[in-house]
Amino acid sequence: MATTDGRLAIGADTSEPEAARAVRAWVDAHLPRHWIDAGRAGGASAVREVRTRAHYEAWYPVFADSGLVVPTWPVAYGGLDVSAAVARRAEAELAPFNLGRLNPLGLNLAAPALFAHGSEAQRLRFLPPIVRNAEVWCQLFSEPAAGSDLASLATRAVRDGDRWMLTGQKVWTTWAHRSDWAVLLARTDADVPKRDGITYFLVDLHQRGVEIRPLRHMGGDVDFNEVFLDDAIALDAHRVGAVGEGWTVANATLSGERQMVAGAGSGGVDRIGGLGVDNVVGRARRSDQSRDPVVRHALMRVFSEERIRDWTNQRVRAHVKAGRPPGPESSIGKVHQGGLNQRVQLLATALLGMDAVAWVGESLPPEVRGMLRSRANTIEGGTTEINKNVLGERVLGLPREPDPWRGASWRETPH
Q1: Which of 127, 192, 234, 367 has the fewest Cβ atoms within 10 Å of its own Cβ atom?
Q2: Which of 116, 75, 72, 111 is nearest to 91 (CA)?
Q3: Strand partners, 295
């Protein structure tokens, strides 16, 4: 059951059984037949066997038009305005068909800032194209000398009438080479303490003054980039929040990022780098290695950790669905996930045996590729060390680390 514009005809008053029936009808009417057959016979893994990435990207606007990509969002922004319970029921109906959300950085980094601090005009302009994957997003925060201490960033924004001129360098920008827009932090006042002189902008990457240079990591792929800004332009209409209050706005993005990379149950990216625990367990069974008590012990350890992580992240997700921000609690999942995924990928590589050391052909085995990619998990989305500080200070209430430059202006602080 859908409206004339393709949106599913459910809303705030829809019951869970009604939503389930509507989603099943939508699946039968809009998914390609071979996806449906594969999903109902073998679930998400079977769908991956019969569907290419290009095919899914081409079909994706149909999914976006339904409102099911972000069902709890208001209709005006591309959602269905349904309750969290109805959204979960709808997601359960969709689960066998592996309908992953494209544009995760737009959905999980840009959107939280727009919801919390953006204007209505900004939300109407940017959220629907994010949902449709029509405008792909990245995050221009980290700099060569401002990573863990992000607030010390040096990229400048100078006002020129109704626009701002941006000059500086960003680095480790995930998927910038594929992106159309970016959220960006820039310094608009050097004579106040570092967190007080930062402003948050939305920046069009397809303009003169923006240069993107890919960084190839040791797995051979390109995920990260360095971005150079030379009098690039951000319109004042694309400033989110007040001038000088970018650090407050950025916290919405950072919380969303930590939640996203925390993994399953958090509503974001399930795993950045490698196979999931269930897949590793399945491979051990198929190779009969699960009969080895040492291997069984290792599998059970990561399996148990995965379930604990999932339950913890479900609590974070429940806060978000109830209309509360993820907050510092989202760092719990991020800290656990980074180390856990590295342990999972090392185990997957160990199960591969000598084939992880030498293999036929030029392509890395997926286990090796996942292991190499997972080394970044404890760095991206805020390093594990910084997130432990967040947990200690904001969750446990421990005293802050001494800062001899606290209260000094950015210009006076050593860089």
Answers
A1: 192
A2: 72
A3: none
123 CB-contact burial (10 Å; exposed 0-12 / middle 13-18 / buried 19+): middle
Size of the chain, expressed as the number of residues it contains: 415
Give tens-digit pLDDT for 105-130: 999 999 999 999 999 999 999 999 99
Phi, psi of 398 (to 5 degrees): -75, 155
Residue 33 in this model has a pLDDT that exceeds 80: yes
Helix (H), strand (E), coil (C) string for 117-185: HCCHHHHHHHHHHHHHCCCCEEEECCECCECCCHHHCCCEEEEECCEEEEEEEECCCCCHHHCCEEEEE
Is 70 exceeded by the pLDDT of residue 274? yes
Residues recognised as catalytic: 257
Kindly state the DSSP code that residue 157 receives in the 8-state scheme. Answer: E
Which whole number is the average pLDDT over 146-168? 95
> Counting Cβ atoms within 10 Å, is residue 62 exposed (0-12), middle (13-18) or buried (19+)?
middle
Q: Under DSSP, is residue 62 helix (H, G, I), strand (E, B) or coil?
A: helix
Within 8 A by CB and 6+ apart from 4, the residues are none
Which amino acid is residue 388, in one-letter code? K
> 58 φ, ψ to 5°?
-70, -35
Paired with 215 in beta bridges are 224
Distance CA 133, CA 386 (A): 32
- Residue 279 near residue 302, CB atoms below 8 Å: no
Whether the CB-CB separation of 309 and 264 falls below 8 Å is answered with yes
Residues 6+ apart with CB under 8 A from 176: 138, 140, 182, 205, 212, 225, 227
Distance CA(310)–CA(340), nearest Å, equals 12
The span from the CA of 103 to the CA of 125, in Å, is 16
Which residues, 6 or more positions from 1, have their beta carbon under 8 angstroms from its beta carbon? 8, 9, 10, 21, 22, 25, 26
Band (pLDDT 50/70/90 cuts) for residue 257 is low
Q: Is the dihedral of CA 319, 97, 10, 16 positive or negative?
A: negative
- CA 302, CA 340: separation in Å to the nearest integer? 7
Q: Which residues contact 351 (CB under 8 A, 6 or more apart)?
A: 280, 283, 284, 287, 289, 295, 367
Q: DSSP state, 201? A: E
Q: Which domains does the chain have, with CATH numbers?
A: 16-100 (no CATH), 111-248 (2.40.110.10), 262-395 (1.20.140.10)
Answer yes or no: are the C-beta atoms of 198 and 152 closer than 8 Å: no
Q: What is the mean pLDDT of the chain?
A: 89
